[in-house]
Write a structure and sequence with these properties.
Blueprint (H helix, E strand, L loop, with lengths): L15 E6 L2 E8 L4 E5 L13 H4 L4 E5 L17 H15 L5 E5 L1 H12 L4 E5 L10 H14 L3 H9 L2 H9 L7 H11 L2 H13 L3 H5 L8 E6 L7 H10 L3 E6 L6 H4 L1 H14 L9
Parallel strand pairs: 3-4, 3-5, 5-6, 6-7, 7-8
Antiparallel strand pairs: 1-2, 2-4
Helix pairs in contact: 2-3, 4-8, 5-8, 6-7
């Protein structure tokens, strides 16, 4: 597998490296010192999603962010391993391969579901879900959306066509605004770069086609890891009620809300998000590195 070229102005590009851990070639960014925090972006995102939050975490923690299989600059090694269980298992394998022992995992949207799955297969002190995608599609969408995703994922040239049609500044701006979020122009430009990558679009569609939460949702009441479920009150992609309902089921879960922000709240209001995350980590015993 050949590593994908990372733009020179990509956030924290100087920390980027590629790690071959079966079956993928992972794009990883690592910085800071102290207890290890693993950052998992949502479907269709990449490490750039953490660009505003990472600077608020690295003074206290060692932060490791990576792109999900096939998304961003991680090269997909097995198209059959894009579903929840397979992705979580491959991340756990990557951690073992690199000797990482995460104290906590922070996941956005679908990344929060992966974080909770990881908590079932490796020891963690805390899980933080940001606008966690922890609900099944309802009604017609319950069968129509997965069927469409599967069709798109196996139809030749669809990713290329989508990248060409949707890869315009206006289309990407409108897509981001539709989630209830307003981010800075540099952030929009990074999403535009991703949408223009057919490999990224293909992997995102493949992930959607293989995604199923039924088993994880059925086990939420058995979760043993403390969990903070943080939402943006203006999230139009995943209603805040999803996290509130999950918090009622997960034994050691706490809900928290950032008023006025959308699905990309950690990009819009990183300081406010950090002000909720840092005390929760300390409360869970994930103590920041001591200042000498």
């Amino acid at each position: 597998m050949r590593a994908l070229k990372i733009p020179h102005n990509w956030p924290f590009r100087d920390t980027s490296r590629h790690i071959a851990s079966r079956p993928h070639l992972w794009h990883v960014q690592e910085m800071g010192a102290g207890p290890t925090l693993l950052l998992i972006h949502g479907a269709g995102g990449a490490t750039h999603s953490w660009r505003n939050l990472i600077p608020l975490l690295v003074p206290h923690y060692r932060v490791i962010a990576f792109d999900l299989p096939g998304q961003g600059f991680t090269v997909l090694g097995d198209r059959a391993r894009c579903g929840l269980d397979a992705v979580a298992q491959d991340i756990a394998t990557l951690c073992t391969h690199e000797g990482w022992q995460p104290a906590a995992v922070i996941g956005h949207s679908a990344g929060a579901a992966i974080a909770l799955r990881l908590a079932e297969i490796m020891p963690l002190q805390a899980v933080i879900g940001i606008n966690a995608a922890l609900s099944k599609f309802e009604g017609m969408a319950g069968w129509l959306f997965p069927a469409v995703a599967k069709l798109l994922a196996i139809t030749p040239f669809i990713p290329q066509i989508f990248s060409k049609l949707a890869g315009t500044p206006t289309q990407v701006h409108d897509l981001l605004v539709s989630t209830g979020s307003h981010i800075e122009p540099a952030g929009e430009a990074q999403y535009l770069h991703l949408v223009r990558m057919p490999s990224h679009v293909d992997a995102t569609l493949t992930m959607m086609a293989q995604w199923t939460l039924d088993a994880l949702l059925a086990r939420l009441g058995q979760q043993k890891t403390p969990c903070l479920l943080l939402t943006g009150s203006n999230d139009r992609a995943v209603p805040p009620s999803v996290s509130r309902k999950a918090a009622e089921v997960i034994p050691m879960a706490e809900p928290a809300t950032c008023a006025g922000f959308g699905h990309l709240v950690h990009e819009e209001a990183a300081a406010q998000v950090a002000s909720l995350i840092l005390p929760f980590l300390a409360q869970c015993g994930v103590a920041p590195q001591s200042k000498a």
